[in-house]
Amino acid sequence: MMSKGKLEKYADVLWWGLSTARGKKYRKGDVVLVRYDLPALKLAEVIQASLLDNGLNPVMRQTMTPAMEHNFYYKSNLRQLTFEVPGERELCKHLNGGIYLHAPASLTHLRDVDPRKIGKALVARKPLRDILQKREEKGEYGWTLCLFPTDELARQAGMDTKEYTKQVIRACYLDKKDPVSKWKEIYQEAKAIKKWLNSLRIKTLRIESKNMDLEISQGEKRRWVGISGHNIPSFELFISPDWRGTEGVYYSDQPSYRSGNLVQGVRLTFKGGKVIKAEAGKGQEFLRKQLAMDPGARRVGEFSLTDKRFSRINKFMANTLYDENYGGKNGNCHLALGASYSDTYDGDPRRLTKKRKGSLGFNDSALHWDLVNTEDKRVTAILADGREKVIYENGLFRY
Fold first, then answer.
1. What is the pLDDT of residue 10?
2. What are the residue ranges of helices labelled H in 36-109?
3. Pairing of β 31-36 and β 202-209
4. Residue 195: which residues within 8 A CB-CB, separation 6 or more?
5. Quick one: pLDDT at residue 50?
6. Distance (Å, rounded) from C-alpha 227 to C-alpha 239?
7. N or C: which end of the chain has fewer CB within 10 A?
8. CB–CB of 365/299 below 8 Å?
9. Counting beta carbons within 10 angstroms of the beta carbon of residue 197, is it exposed (0 to 12), middle (13 to 18) or buried (19 or more)?
10. What pLDDT sits at residue 350?
11. How far apart (Å, rounded) are the C-alpha atoms in residues 4 and 47?
């Protein structure tokens, strides 16, 4: 579906993303785990060659096929669901990088699986994610991920595979002669916006649209981050707010596929930082079970804004990576239920202990679910001195 030249450009962009996300330069002999879905095999082969050329040690792992994944969640008992593969913890302690090539052959194969079983498996693997997060905080680990087009993604998005592939190529700037230079340009422009946002001393954010009226407390010791190489593509700038200060109504008009379930028209009502009412036009029961995953699943872990000047994504792509970076006419915001990001801490993340996180209102959960709003909206910052400033309107940051 992609020419060899496009695959090589994609690999170059992912190497830029991986290198940028880590901050520290990779050294010869560093270990990078490459996880890939079977349809992305050709891209995985090109990336393996690229990593070898750079003197790194790639560890190649194909993910479960849809049938395997269904078998696992449908047939496993509790011990099997929570089983930790011998050596997995040891590998995590020595990884320097991770690349995930997401190329689903099915989006709905888990729809008859009890979401609670999926939740138990996620909770059981959280200690492994915590190891990688700690390594990332120390600058020892970096990661990036991308999407490879499949027939299933195209079908669920209402496109043919050729058109869907064009959307991916366009979104990642693979149609440019030198896409890495374009990503470096976007990176610098985003850096200027983040500097501006972080200079404002924001206390509260008010988000208003046709179906939304929400207030979020930015929290102490926070900084806006994003467009860091972690996701390809990524155009969002985001914060992990103090979950305790979330009040009002959030609405997601963008459909969301999660664990084989399609959820649409999600309306969340917050009081005292927690979801007290959750409604969905489609997928209501699945939404309810996701919110019951653990105590943090009803709290906010992230708030994000995308400037439409950066994003060339203008269609629903049936994939969160793309849909949370939607540009279109109005840009987008998204709110994530669940886990927060420690890299939004304005300080040394190595000093951000579990107790410190709790005192600052950083949320902890096995869930992280991005829910996207593409309506025309206004975002107003209430500053520490009481002044109000519109920071985002008509899909653009007003800096």
1. 98
2. 41-53, 66-75, 78-81, 88-92
3. unpaired
4. none
5. 96
6. 12
7. C
8. yes
9. buried
10. 75
11. 12
For residue 260, the model assigns a pLDDT of 80
Residues sharing a CB contact under 8 Å with residue 356, sequence separation 6 or more, in sequence order: none
Q: Are strands 212-217 and 142-147 parallel, antiparallel or unpaired?
A: unpaired
For CATH 3.40.1830.10, the residue range(s) in the chain are 4-171
C-alpha 324/C-alpha 198 separation (Å) is 22
Report, as ranges of residue numbers, the positions in the chain whose pLDDT lies below 50: none
How far apart CA 204 and CA 337 sit, in angstroms, is 18
Q: For residue 187, with 0-12 CB atoms within 10 Å meaning exposed, 13-18 middle and 19 or more buried, which class applies? A: middle
> How many other C-beta atoms lie within 10 A of the C-beta of residue 190?
22
Q: Please report, as a single letter, which amino acid is at residue 278.
A: A
3-state class (DSSP) for residue 339? coil
Q: What does the pLDDT read at residue 4?
A: 95
Q: Give yes or no for a cis peptide into 86 (omega within 30° of 0).
A: no
Quickly name the fold that domain 4-171 has.
Thermophilic metalloprotease-like (3.40.1830)
Pairing verdict, β 97-102 and 142-147: parallel
Kind plus residue range of the DSSP H or E element containing 187? helix 179-198
> Please, how many CA atoms are within 13 Å of residue 343, restricted to the half-sphere of its CB?
20
- In this structure, what token pair is assigned to residue 189? 């422009």
For residues 183 and 172, is the Cβ–Cβ distance under 8 A? Answer: no
Give the per-residue pLDDT at 348: 84
The whole-angstrom separation of Cα 171 and Cα 259 is 25
| Cα dihedral 339/345/348/354 (nearest 10) | -40
Whole-prediction pTM: 0.89
Residue among 100, 99, 102 nearest 153 (CA): 102
Q: Which residues contact 165 (CB under 8 A, 6 or more apart)?
A: 1, 2, 149, 154
Residues 6+ apart with CB under 8 A from 128: 84, 88, 89, 92
- Give the tokens for residue 315: 């269609």
**What are the CA-CA distances from residue 109 to residues 30, 44, 68, 106, 187 (Å)?**
36, 24, 10, 6, 37
In angstroms, rounded to a whole number, what is the distance separating the alpha carbons of residues 95 and 93?
A: 6
Q: How far is CA 181 from the centre of its chain?
A: 23
* φ, ψ dihedrals at 76, nearest 5°: -70, 140
pLDDT score recorded for residue 259: 84
d(CA 384, CA 399): 18
386 within 8 A of 379, measured Cβ to Cβ: no
